[in-house]
Amino acid sequence: MKVLVANIEDVMREAAARWTLLAYFTISTLFILIFAFAVNLDIVEGSLAGAKLFGNDVQMHGQSSISIDALVGYVESGLVGFLFLFWPFIAIFATAHLVPRMMEKGTVDLYLSRPVGRVKLLLSRYLAGLLLAGSNIAYLIGAMWLIVVWKTHVAHPRFFVGALIIFFFVASLMAFAFLIGVVTSSTAVSIMMTYFLFLLGYPLVAHDRFAAAVNAEWKAAIIQGLYWIVPKSSEILGAVVAIVSEKNLPRQLSAGLTPAPFLSTAIFAIACLMLASWLFQRKEF
Question: Which tens digit of pLDDT belongs to each residue from 130-185?
């Protein structure tokens, strides 16, 4: 526990000294303020009679009113969908330096001079990074939920389920970023490779079609193998939107509502952390 507390303190101090912490929460605050001031709603007896977005009237598409409960579902599902696409990159950008910075000459000597095992050191730094990313996600989602409640007087707790799913996915990407950081000692490479992995999950949702289109079995096996190895970006995005909106989605997206994408993504994250810990133990400094 002392190791974890010390690493959390180190990570927060480092993030503050490098302006990462300030930038991280400033971006979140600006996003919250834009959301708060952009939308003005005219609610009459529990239904939306009119709406303005950035001062412009929103057309109701022939409807005189719309249920405010349905509106909140649309807004919150759109928000979590946007955050799932955008916020993992911000979280990785804010935490990808944790391993390369620790492995710099002089810094790593200081860390290893302490009576702490290398695996504990690496994992406690990972948990500290998760705390940094998680606190920002909690701040962002919590503030937007309060704004929605303030403007509509409708509270959907499932919005927080979406936040937990986003946090879970960020944790899996961070595990991969830590692995790349141990291998390359480069913050830039960690960011690029992690975001590439994030984007790779979207086309792989159609892995069966790609595998059927290639002209060799070994190519199809590689495609299928990649699908089951990498985090399931598309399926989990579909799951988070479906859970928050309580709507049925197209089959390819609603596939994320099964346990398989979450289990395979969790296994991937655990495997990355185990491999990173093993490599970190074997490194010579």
Answer: 988 998 899 999 998 898 888 777 788 888 999 999 999 999 999 999 999 999 99
Residue 51, classed as helix, strand or coil, is: strand
Distance CA 119, CA 135 (A): 24
Q: Name the residue with tokens 């605050």.
A: 29
Would the CA dihedral through 176, 182, 187, 189 be positive or negative?
negative
Mean pLDDT of 188-205: 93
Region 84-106: what's the mean pLDDT?
Answer: 87
On whether the CB atoms of residues 102 and 283 are closer than 8 A, the answer is: no
Say if residues 162 and 240 touch (Cβ distance below 8 Å): yes
User: In terms of pLDDT, which residue wins out, 222 or 21?
Assistant: 222
Q: Which among 209, 2, 211, 187 is positioned nearest to 99, based on CA atoms? A: 187
Q: What are phi and psi of 87, to 5 degrees?
A: -70, -30
Listed range (5-19, 33-47, 154-168) with the worst mean pLDDT:
33-47
- Judging by DSSP bridges, how do beta strands 66-67 and 39-44 pair with one another? unpaired
Place of tokens 């939107």: 241
For 170-190, give one letter per residue: b (16+ CB within 10 A) or e.
Answer: bbbbbbbbbbbbbbebbbebb
Confidence of residue 249 (pLDDT cuts 50, 70, 90): low
Count of H helices and E strands in the chain?
13, 4
Angle at 151 between CA 47 and CA 147, to 5 degrees: 140
The residue type at 174:
M
Listed residue (180, 163, 175, 176) closest to 240, CA to CA: 163
Going from N- to C-terminal start, the domains of the chain cover 2-25+68-282
| Cα–Cα distance for residue pair 255/238, rounded to 1 Å | 7
Separation between Cα atoms, residue 108 and residue 101, nearest integer Å: 8
- For residue 198 the two structure tokens come to 């994030």
Which helix (H) or strand (E) segment holds residue 57: the answer is: strand 56-57
